[in-house]
Write a structure and sequence with these properties.
This protein is an alpha+beta fold. The chain has three helices and eight strands. It has one domain: Deoxyribonuclease I, Chain A (4-Layer Sandwich), CATH 3.60.10.10.
């Protein structure tokens, strides 16, 4: 991604942060935010099954941790298995449970939550339930239908 071009299209009064895919061409995880909001970048979350960016936004003494995740698709080429994602995501949820501020996790997990009998759907729902996290998206998020994009919070 050419950051110069991103700077050219970032609206006035906003800032843009980009975290490139590690060892890969193109893509990555991005955040666009108002420049009068305090934003603190947190250290990278170590995971082989997803890329992420973790920031804390602060406005008027209120803080919220936002984690944006880009799940890598399980393939032979990526050498990532679904079990890798669930193990690493469970670890992330456990680590986030110690944060007293608001927590929001967002992205397209490529798990069809509108298909409750699928194994990956069941596993994700169980993880979220055990971590007391709430799914805040109940309607389709994909152009072809289905719920694969999520916004998850601890309240």
């Amino acid at each position: 991604m050419d950051i110069t071009n991103i700077g050219d299209v970032t609206p006035s009064g906003y800032k843009f942060r980009h975290k490139a895919h590690t060892g890969k061409r193109g893509g990555g995880v991005d955040i666009l935010y108002l420049d009068d909001i305090g934003l603190e970048m947190h250290s990278a979350i170590k995971a082989k099954s997803y890329e992420s960016v973790h920031v804390m936004l602060t406005v008027g003494g209120f803080s919220v941790h936002i984690i944006i995740i880009c799940r890598l698709h399980p393939t032979k080429k990526s050498k990532v298995k679904s079990s890798d994602f669930f193990a690493e995501f469970a670890t992330l949820l456990d680590e986030l449970s110690s944060i007293s501020d608001e927590v929001i996790i967002a992205d397209d997990y490529s798990i069809h939550l509108d298909k409750p009998t699928e194994t990956e759907t069941k596993h994700l729902v169980e993880l979220l339930h055990s971590a007391n996290m709430l799914r805040n998206v109940k309607e389709r998020t994909h152009v072809s239908g289905g719920i694969i994009g999520l916004v998850i919070s601890n309240t």
